[in-house]
């Protein structure tokens, strides 16, 4: 048991639930590369004159040379499950006149190529201040779990690349539940596996869906991690918003 100090809030907790992308790992270090690969593949099959740009489609932000430099915190790249992303890409191909079967096949091919690219690069980097905060969690004996819209196997791999896998007792991906975020099923599942009730935990995430999931699941506090004004604006349901992990601390006593 420990007290989490976040802003003007002090909460007694026994565990923390973390989102993965943008919360544990720097979002663009991994998914920027992944999205660039998908867009490069997709560009050969869609018209550049379309009223629907690839940035609009995926929720990315590109420079004038077509290089992805950022993302929309409310967009699908940030929030969608792998299956939802696949459906978006397939729809875009279908919109261009490809058959639905061909669209699905091409989307899978693009994703496989993008997965292979990030596997080769292994560019996942932890969020600033995360290793120190995880060290505090371990020192205080807190139980930790990851609840992510990614598939479990991918999540485990990404945590291993950053050398932080061993901090987490359980990793729950979208493939382990019937209902993804913002439904609270992941919260209930994670707490059951940790041997805790939701009110003994805090939810930390970078998307409003994380905040909504935590509140619906009954956690003690929802903490948003946001690096800029736009990201902060997107976290409207967060109890507390922190710019980085150095704004959070743990103590055995008040």
TrEMBL record:
<protein>
    <submittedName>
        <fullName>HAD-IA family hydrolase</fullName>
    </submittedName>
</protein>
<dbReference type="GO" id="GO:0006281">
    <property type="term" value="P:DNA repair"/>
</dbReference>
<dbReference type="InterPro" id="IPR050155">
    <property type="entry name" value="HAD-like_hydrolase_sf"/>
</dbReference>
<dbReference type="InterPro" id="IPR006439">
    <property type="entry name" value="HAD-SF_hydro_IA"/>
</dbReference>
<dbReference type="Pfam" id="PF00702">
    <property type="entry name" value="Hydrolase"/>
</dbReference>
<dbReference type="InterPro" id="IPR023214">
    <property type="entry name" value="HAD_sf"/>
</dbReference>
<keyword id="KW-0378">Hydrolase</keyword>
<dbReference type="InterPro" id="IPR023198">
    <property type="entry name" value="PGP-like_dom2"/>
</dbReference>
<dbReference type="GO" id="GO:0008967">
    <property type="term" value="F:phosphoglycolate phosphatase activity"/>
</dbReference>
<dbReference type="InterPro" id="IPR036412">
    <property type="entry name" value="HAD-like_sf"/>
</dbReference>
């Amino acid at each position: 048991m420990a007290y989490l100090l976040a802003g003007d809030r002090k909460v007694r907790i026994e565990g923390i639930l973390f989102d993965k992308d943008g919360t544990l790992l720097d979002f663009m270090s991994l998914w920027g590369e992944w999205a660039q690969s998908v867009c490069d593949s997709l560009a050969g099959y869609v018209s550049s004159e379309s009223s629907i740009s690839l940035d609009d489609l995926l929720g990315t932000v590109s420079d004038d040379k077509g290089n992805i430099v950022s993302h929309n915190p409310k967009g699908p790249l940030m929030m969608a499950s792998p299956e939802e992303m696949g459906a978006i890409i397939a729809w875009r191909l279908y919109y261009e006149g490809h058959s639905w079967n061909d669209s699905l096949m091409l989307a899978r091919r693009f994703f496989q190529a993008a997965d292979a690219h990030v596997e080769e690069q292994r560019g996942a980097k932890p969020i600033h201040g995360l290793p120190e905060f995880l060290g505090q969690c371990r020192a205080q004996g807190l139980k930790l779990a990851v609840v992510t819209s990614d598939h479990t196997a991918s999540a485990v791999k990404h945590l291993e690349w950053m050398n932080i896998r061993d901090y987490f007792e359980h990793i729950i991906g979208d493939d382990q539940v019937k209902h993804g975020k913002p439904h609270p099923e992941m919260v209930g599942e994670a707490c059951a596996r940790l041997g805790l009730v939701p009110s003994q935990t805090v939810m930390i995430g970078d998307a409003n869906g994380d905040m909504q999931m935590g509140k619906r699941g009954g956690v003690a506090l929802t903490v948003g991690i946001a690096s800029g004004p736009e990201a902060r604006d997107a976290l409207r349901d967060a109890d507390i918003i922190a710019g980085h992990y150095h704004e959070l601390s743990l103590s055995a006593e008040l």
